[in-house]
Automatic annotation (TrEMBL):
Protein name: Heme chaperone HemW
Gene3D superfamilies with a match to the protein in the record: Aldolase class I
CDD domains with a match to the protein in the record: Radical_SAM
Top-rank taxon, per record: Bacteria
Record SMART domains: Elp3
Database matches in NCBIfam families: hemN_rel (TIGR00539)
Amino acid sequence: MNTVAGVRDLGVYVHVPFCSVRCGYCDFNTYAPGEVEGATREGYVEAALREMELARTAMPGDARAARTVFFGGGTPTMLDSSALIALLDGVRGTWGLSADAEVTTEANPDSVTKESLRALARAGFTRVSLGMQSAVPHVLTTLDRTHNPANVERAVAAAREAGLKVSLDLIYGTPGESLADWRASLESVLALEPDHVSAYALVIEPGTRMGAQLRRGEVEPTDPDVQAEMYELADTLLSEAGYSWYEVSNWAREPADRCRHNMAYWRSQDWWGVGPGAHSYLGPHRRPDGTEAPARRWWNVKHPRAYAARLAAGESPEAEGEELAGDDLRLEQVMLRLRLSEGIPAELVEGRGEAVAKLIADGVLDGAAAVRGTLRLTRRGRLLADLAVRALAF
């Protein structure tokens, strides 16, 4: 498959659906030991490699090498480093890796060692994204996190020693977390001087254990106004320390420290998702027969056992898919790209001048940038990004 004008990058996402425990707030497609009868880590690796072989036949004529690879989950480092390396070798064999490829794995601070990180770095991994979440013990307990704050410092030191870039992931707005708790977590992050920081507002989903606790009145949700204060505090402290926001929930020291894989999502580049429940996306493209194809998104069956069974039978693990064209495709681009500091070209929402004017008047969009033809969120606008997208919908 050939891309239009060959302008889009190709990334690969590898979903590893295993965790040591299921955190109470998590609604991702992950499984703790004993939750998935008949599905093993060894079987998962075999199935994922088979899906890569299938991808080779599904993308005829596409000679692009992967520019980014992201191992997410779950906790990818629940697999031995040798298994992660085998999966990365599978990516190399299927698509190839560009000379400057960014290769990231997520990890829990207590799921890596000096030895495992060295092995990953030698094999071509370039980044590790550590799920720190908080530096405050009672907040970690509420989140069901298994590590203690000291594990984070050890993991960061080990990653740096291995030559890996380091991202620290935080969650704010946990029930019982005060503004002072959140400040303590931010100060702990800054003391470790990571290359990249992500900070996400906790959303308590109905189907999670924390959702059930909320229904029973066992926990109280954090006031949205307090969450907004927490975001503003994060942006202030990180900015003062030399980090720049480049996406609503992400900050980096330098442009080179931004997560290129996630940037590809927000910029509607192409990616193939490997693993149970993984999503894939290919933008408008030209088929081998010369005809034009619309953008397409698809996703795999979620259960690891069903995923492995399909691939063992030589079948596609795809569960469902959809095509995107016209206004649907344009709306998705607005929804994703507006979250970036670079903003979107004003012509992308041509005909929505009244909505744009109101968003500028309300302090959601940067008026000076709009005059120059770019719609860009203000800091207030970052807190109201979903509202901005709805207002600009067409």
